Amino acid sequence: MTLLTAAATADRVRSGRLTAVDATRQALARIGDDAVHGWRVVRPEEALAEAAAIDARPDRYSLPLAGVPIAIKDNVAVSGYRVLDGVSEACGAGLPIEQNDHPVVKRLRAAGAVVVGLTRVPELCLWAMTDDAREVVGNPHRPGRTAGGSSGGSAAVVAAGHVALAHGNDGLGS
Fold it and tell me: Residues 25-52: pLDDT tens digits?
């Protein structure tokens, strides 16, 4: 199953040649067991529900990212999840579950994107590599090497062909 670009996916969903649900199912199948360890959490049920909602929208023909499966870096709020900023689930257990999406996530969803999951970041987003005590986020083009960078999880899942588009940002001025 070939990964389409974000533009090609949106074009096919807008034209009716592909459903957002099918695009999301394909992305979830490509993720598989996540051999690059780029995902902190994958949200299959929620993503498929979001995709079905896109398919049901009468204005989907005008959405710039109609049905495009995307990844969100785990340092911005996605409703229903904790923003862990790279700390372990145990350390982050006291953090609140987000009730609202960060503005960038709101805008992506308003454009028709489907949030497939949250990608790994370095602990507290402080280090120059995404690796932590639990996982090394691998570089799919250079096995045995890290993806690096605070957006390494996002970079790895795009480079591995899981999704065509991922959120990444720079919070410390690198």
Answer: 999 999 998 899 999 999 999 999 999 9
73-103 pLDDT tens trace: 999 999 999 998 888 878 888 888 999 999 9
Q: How far apart are CA 117 and CA 47, in angstroms?
A: 8
Indicate if 174 belongs to the active site.
yes
Burial class (CB in 10 A: 0-12, 13-18, 19+), 79: middle
- Its pTM stands at 0.93
Query: Annotated catalytic residue: which of 15, 150, 151, 154?
Result: 150
Q: Using CA atoms, how far apart are residues 32 and 65, in angstroms rounded to an integer?
A: 23
CA atoms within 13 A on the CB side of 134: 15
Q: Is there a catalytic annotation at residue 150?
A: yes
Active site residue 73: yes
